[in-house]
Amino acid sequence: MPAVTRIDPKDVFTPEEWARFSKRSTWLGLVCVASAWGLIFAAGAMFVLWPNPLTYILAVMLIGARQLGLAILMHDAAHGALHSNLKINDWVGEWLCAAPVGARLKSYRDYHLKHHRFTEQPEDPDRSLSAPFPITRASLWRKVARDLTGRTFLKQRTAQIFGNRKPGEVVNSSNGRFLLTNALLLISLSAAGYWWAYFALWIVPMATWLPLVTRLRNIAEHACVKTAEDPFTHARTTLANIFERLFIAPYWVHFHGEHHVFMHAPCYRLESLHRSLMEKGYWSRMHIAPSYFSVLGEATNKPIAQPA
């Protein structure tokens, strides 16, 4: 099938507006990366200082969400939007974002740009993520259980090692870079006297909360979105509240409808770009959900089959 229609940003925004929304900062992307790692270490320190079941669960959720945040910032780097200097963009995206969570920037970029070119068409490499929806609530709960018990993680890592990966999983990994960055993290924590924190506060979040919030992100972006020729219909925007942004959707990833139409706008510009679109009346052409809970309600409305 032909590639999806693209919209010229200057048909929507004035040249001055688009220059502002598309500008790549020399420091905002780096601040985002630093904040992801800062919150990871702060959440770990919280549990070290006040060890109890509540602070551990909170640390796992915060760290898993920031691991997703690193993948989101790698995604920005794949679009060349993380830094104004492409060499810095690619180095930071590769070594500080992609490698620690088992991804590879270059191969992800090729994969992901094909998704943009053929969104929700048969050629879309992510089509299998949205095609099964809507599903039943029981089916969703089974998936959640697999995520939180580590079964999804084991399946993905087995596929990563043996090369049998499915679309949408932690994609296009480089085992060597993943092992190197994780070895450095383990060595650093061990030198500080906290070797156990690598397993309890890095691997456990990666094996539990990260798969779950990645699944929720995938559902919110394209599940049950009836795409038409209008590019504004190709993805969903979810109006995440502060808690959803903290634990599920960091770094403006919930503005996915805006990203699909204007894919070269950096993530840190998407909120102001969204406000501008709303003021211009484009809300009537977009899929906008009020929360992640509402998205799950829409994605799990398949009736249970009754026996004949």
TrEMBL record:
Pfam families: FA_desaturase (PF00487). GO terms for cellular component: membrane. One of its GO terms (biological process) is ceramide biosynthetic process. Keywords: Membrane, Transmembrane, Transmembrane helix. The keyword Hydrolase does not apply. InterPro entries: FA_desaturase_dom. One of its GO terms (molecular function) is sphingolipid delta-4 desaturase activity. The chain crosses the membrane at residues 27-50, 56-74, 183-204. Residues 52-287 form the Fatty acid desaturase domain. This is Fatty acid desaturase. The lineage of its organism: Bacteria, Pseudomonadati, Pseudomonadota, Alphaproteobacteria, Hyphomonadales.
